[in-house]
Amino acid sequence: MTKTKIIIISAIGLLSLLSKLALADMPPPKGWYIEGSAGISNTTDSSFGNGTSLESSGYGLNLNVGYKFLPYFGLEMGYSRYSRNNINFQNTTVAKDDPTSYDITTKIILPIMDSGFEFYAKLGAVRVSSKITISDQTIIDDNGLNIQSGTTSANNVYYGVGAEYYFMKDSAVHVAWMRANGNSQTGAQELTTIGLSVIFG
Length: 201
Fold this sequence. Notes:
Blueprint: H1 3-21, E1 31-44, E2 52-55, E3 58-70, E4 73-81, E5 85-89, E6 92-111, E7 117-134, H2 137-142, E8 150-168, E9 171-180, E10 188-200
Antiparallel strand pairs: 1-3, 1-10, 2-5, 3-4, 4-6, 5-6, 6-7, 7-8, 8-9, 9-10
């Protein structure tokens, strides 16, 4: 069973348990909120030269602060830290990559009346940063690989979808999938998470 499947099954089980333990309540129609979550991280669409590969599966986290203007709309700022990646050349690790991102997004919300459930989609701008640490400069130089020590950043699009269940009027558990697009050096960062949110209505 893959890590992503474990996250999804755990999330469904937790939502089912909370729905039995507490009466569903509608969240406040507006107010400040905070979110925190953790889950499976994956990097795609990066390129460092012929013969290179990326070991990218691991764990990441996400933190958001936002304001809900209406039951159907919000704005938020977020920070994500993704799993450390190994950059390999012919099965030898030549560098390590520590990706992070900051985003500003709109949040479109679809509340399910009198259920405590909400579905949402996020769309906005993101700055993805990739901090690379060299492990074997000799292999990199001898094979002309496009790998340099330091931090590379790219501005691009951030988007994703999620669902949350309010087990109390101001507290919810949520599951989400988010993607932060970058460039060929930073890659695109994907995060599948489960977490908690609190709204101050």
